[in-house]
Amino acid sequence: MGIIEKRKQKHEERVKRLYERHKRIHALLKKHASDILNSENFKGTRKHIQHGSMTVYNHSMDVARYSLLLNKKLGLKCNKHDLIRGALLHDYFLYDWHDKDYLSERKRLHGFWHPSIALKNAEKEYRLNDTQRDIIHKHMWPLTVVPPMCKEAWVVTAADKYCSLMETMKLHKGHGARKAS
């Protein structure tokens, strides 16, 4: 087998591994959060930009994926149910934080206030446990002052920081807010 064939084979194997990983993550998201994924409010987050050209919806999905990957890579044995649900709802603030005309003075400090707003919105729609509340409420640490109290919240906080950095630096691009049909 020549060099080109070996490279092609390695590439095909890598693509297959990535596809299998994507399928496993998608199955976990569906298993633990189908109610969130099917929610009209969650689907509505596709209309708002988070960072760069990434929508809040895609950002939240990425944070959930990276949280699962980080948990596995570090062998933390986090509760996957809580990790996924907290990651998907961590930015459940349901408004466009870039619209300065719409936002009150308080909400203009979005980084400080949106965890509390996201938690209130999530609690209206879903039954949350203490771990999920901790994830949503403290994912903006150190802006939230009080640090996360569980490992799941630390993992989501780290995944959120990573995704936000990649989006802000335009290294991880979204497709922008979609127009309502």
How widely separated are the two ends? 52 Å
Shape: globular
Class by helix and strand content?
A: mainly alpha
Give the ordered list of helices and strands: HHHHHHH
Total of helices: 7
Report the portion of residues in β strands: under 5%
Report Rg.
Answer: 18 Å
Q: How is the biggest beta sheet arranged?
A: none
Helix content estimate:
55-70%
Residue stretches low in confidence (pLDDT < 50, at least 5 long) are 175-181
Average pLDDT metric:
84
Fold topology:
Elements: H1 3-37, H2 40-44, H3 56-74, H4 80-89, H5 110-125, H6 130-138, H7 151-168
Which keywords apply here?
single chain; 181 residues; mainly alpha; 7 helices; 0% strand; disordered C terminus
Outline:
With 181 residues, the protein is mostly helical. The protein has helices spanning 3-37, 40-44, 56-74, 80-89, 110-125, 130-138, 151-168. The protein starts with a helix and ends in a 13-residue tail after the last helix.
Description of the molecule:
The protein is mainly α and 181 residues long. It has seven helices and no strands. The chain has helices spanning 3-37, 40-44, 56-74, 80-89, 110-125, 130-138, 151-168. Helix 4 (80-89) crosses helix 7. 35% of the residues are buried.
